[in-house]
Predict the structure of Histidine ammonia-lyase.
Amino acid sequence: MEGTPLALAEGWRATVEASAAALEARMATGEALYGVNTGFGKLAGTRIPAAQLAQLQLNLVRSHAAGTGPLLPAPVVRLVLALKALSLARGASAVRPAVVEALLALLAADITPAIPARGSVGASGDLAPLAHLSLVLIGEGEAFVEGQVVPGAEALRRAGVAPLSLGPKEGLALLNGTQVSTALALAALFAAEDLLRTALLAGAMSVDAARGSDTPFDPRIHALRGQPGQIRAAATLRALLAGSQIRESHRQGDPRVQDPYSLRCHPQVAGACLDLLGHAAQVLEREANAVTDNPLVVEGGEVLSGGNFHAEPVAFAADAIALALAEIGAISERRIALLVDPVLSGLPAFLVREGGLNSGFMIAQVTAAALTAENRALATPRSVDSLPTSANQEDHVSMATGAALRLHDMADNLAGILAVELLCAAQGFEFHRPLQSSEVLERAHGLVRTAAAAWDADRAMAPDMAAVKALVERGRFAALVEMA
């Protein structure tokens, strides 16, 4: 999402020009065209005189810039710009090529519109956030330039980009669409994919730290069920544990017949999350390439009013990602609880010698539990929470933007949970020395130790957690995992 050049399909300009020409021809007939020579939403029955059509589009952008809350991260906004350019370049939105070129110019100049995160219900498009983006195109609003927020006009001046004068329907085409909710969901999906890989690594470390069995990862078990994600997760766990001396040390004579579910059922849970994320990725890939504004100019020049701006697919995808994030964290927290419990793990209580004098990882598990509880609450589906807007003209909405926005808090919480598990599992390794785990798990152990020393006596835990969490968020642990 950062710094990647955007190249549109060859021939996009001719397609876009044809769409704009078709709209111009329909306007010449004098018929009522929604959002072109009429008002918007509940005001669609109001005809606008030809002399005021340019003002209509300008008023739309200004009035709809009603967002609030913290600003969206720059990488997400860059993705929004790219998705909007891709959508308009499909040639069904009846805008001039200049509109697409203006979006591309912002990307090329690294001008990032300042977009408040809240204010969209994910139907009629992401109206408020896209209005804030569009303000910058016309030389208004605010934008980030070299890390500083400046007026939109100043941002364009510095980049040598001329403000855009909006033509018929162009304000509406810019505001209609699911690009903000889609960009937010995509960014969360990318984070979730990395976090799932990290969770598989952390889970494999916990298996060795607790002297668990790798029998539950036997491919014959998973082939009998046939769930593709589960099969991949089990294969990945097998590969992560392959060659572990710790595993070999207790292969014979271990009185435990079965491990707790958090170890034994990791392929089933992670695999289901893997399949869920895969489905969400398919939905979001389609949406990223979709035309989602209204009305649309189709082949033959006909202008059709519809509802492609309704972001229900994105809302469902975001809710699915939320379930995956919550469950990855929930089973990780259970492994943390297992590791600090001497009855279950066979390790010293709270993973520290001289327990009592030292509390070890006691409260780190409490923190993981708090983050897990928060993610459970955040995982409540948003797509079922429709609230009518626009005087009941927009009487069913998707809530996709909020659904996608909450994923970023969930991913942050999950990174914190996984950081605690990695710390606990690495500490567990210390009690099995001189035995070594597998090569890849020892590399993960070494990565933890670059950020946090072994826990010999109590000290402040928060700096260790923050340092390992930073490595999680940078994908350092995920990079160690080769998915089957």
User: Anything to note?
Assistant: The longest helix spans residues 179-209. The radius of gyration is 27 Å. The chain has two domains: 12-177, 184-480. The mean pLDDT is 94.
